[in-house]
Amino acid sequence: AVELGANTFVISGMGDSDDQNRGSRLEMALKEALGNDEMEVFLQPKCLAGTGELVSMEALVRWNHPELGHIPPQEFIPIAENSGMIGSISRFVYFRAFEMLMEFSRLGYSHLRLALNVSPLEIHDGTLVKNLTNGLLFTGIDPRKVELEITEGSLLINSQTARSILDEVKSLGFQISIDDFGTGYSTFGYLKNFQFDTLKIDKSFIDQIQMDNNSRAIVQAIIAMSRTLNLQTVAEGVETQEQYDILKELGCDQLQGYFFGRPMNFDDFVNYLGDTSVK
Ligand code: C2E
Ligand code: CA
Ligand code: CA
Ligand code: CA
After folding, report:
1. ipTM of this predicted complex?
2. Per the database entry, which stretches of residues form a coiled coil (predicted)?
3. Whose CA is nearest to atom 25 of ligand 1?
4. Is residue 194 pLDDT above 80, yes or no?
């Protein structure tokens, strides 16, 4: 049991109603999270496959609640989406990430690029363009350094609204990337309907690449197709030297994963930069 203010909830052995309790407890806590300074933006390196050079970083949000502890984004992002809070969380993440990009420039790492995760809901509710333009205005970053990673959404695929919003975002200078390619939601329909610059191959294909010929053949085919479509390729979830070697051999452009570095806070990332990269 965990003490939560005046009430006590049992966290282990939860049944449906306890799941609901946790859900509504998280939803309430989420409303306070930004104001109470409980959220942070971490950065994970992305490296060139050819040279290993660090070229970009993905912003990943972290929520540390004083009583509930660390809550993974996979748990609270859907809650934020369903309760209308995703726009304000994204605003926070974009601003903070833009600020860090500016700071890296000042420190001499002006070549570094940034990737942001975009929820399909922000595209629909109109907050995406507003948050991005305000972020540009307040921080002065160069939008050409920023890439938006977009996943799933049966909502999006045939939507004219989504298309015109992504066109607008591209005309502001941002690049767009299809995230988790090959999973249920991020598929060929998206490639056809939107002008992506980059394709991120889902971790599930990378996991088995060293022992499974099918995974390797699929990744090879995705890379070949990306070349034809003029898309850059990124592999996510690279954990071993063996996976690195295979992906390099297959001609993947960029690699990301624990082998290169875990998501880190700003200070750790600055140290990481000092240790690994050339200014
Ligand atoms: P994603 O965009 O596919 O992000 C990659 C996830 O894989 C991250 O988990 C990252 O920490 C993890 N990861 C990276 N390299 C490795 C590896 O080598 N091995 C393993 N096992 N995992 C690796 P995280 O940070 O927990 O985020 C999970 C998901 O939550 C993200 O998946 C993304 O969909 C969502 N998310 C995270 N931050 C944000 C955000 O700021 N906004 C939105 N809308 N969604 C976010
Ligand atoms: Ca992502
Ligand atoms: Ca991904
Ligand atoms: Ca993924």
Report:
1. 0.98
2. none
3. 60
4. yes
